Amino acid sequence: MRDPRGEPATERLNYTAYRLARALNRFAENAALAHGVTLSQFFVLQVLGEGVALSNAALARRTFVSAQAAHTVSNELIASGLVERGSHPSNKRIRLVQLTEQGWDVLEQCHAELRAHEQRLLATLGSDLHGSLAEVLDRSAEVLAGGYFGDDEAEAAAIARRQSDIRPRHIPSRLARARLRAAANGDAD
To answer: What does the pLDDT look like over 108-124, one tens digit per residue?
Structure first.
């Protein structure tokens, strides 16, 4: 017998969005592996596929991983000839990564498979959502970012509310850490 307080998990956006992300990422991973790259490597290729060379730190932020993980994946892609390092135009200490021609080719092959998969999804959903689904999801991600996409104050506030002593997988930014330390010490901003 079901507890009367229960409600289907599928009525919560976070659960449904996670299910959708898992389904999309499972397909993306299979497409990427068919072209010789992992899902993590594919995410890097997608971000670099915007046509802008990025620093390792920027790449880490855009792919939602640590700087160390972004560096590891970048090195794997460099070794496979899909990405190359270049110099920053004004800061000699920063190295930028960008796609090689081979990287562009692999990305296009993966994107062709993804586009076909996404078109099947949109065809099933109907023409009323066609074209707007990605926009709605992107806007939703912006609105509900929760401090993990560059809003250090929201991040610090979210971390301060945690009641669990289990270390979160997300490591706060420097600004968020400084604000958390100040709050713990009773200092004002």
So the answer is: 999 999 999 888 887 77
Are 100 and 83 contacting, i.e. CB atoms less than 8 angstroms apart? yes
Strand order in the sheet with 54-55: 54-55, 95-99, 83-87
> Could you tell me the pTM of the whole model?
0.72
Distance of CA 163 to the CA centre of its chain: 26
Which DSSP string do the residues of the chain spell out, in sequence order? ---TT---GGGSHHHHHHHHHHHHHHHHHHHHHHTT--HHHHHHHHHHTTS--EEHHHHHHHHTS-HHHHHHHHHHHHHTTSEEEEE-SS-TT-EEEEE-HHHHHHHHHHHHHHHHHHHHHHHHH-TTTTTTHHHHHHHHHHHT-TTSSS-HHHHHHHHHT----SPPSSPPPHHHHHHHHHHHHT---
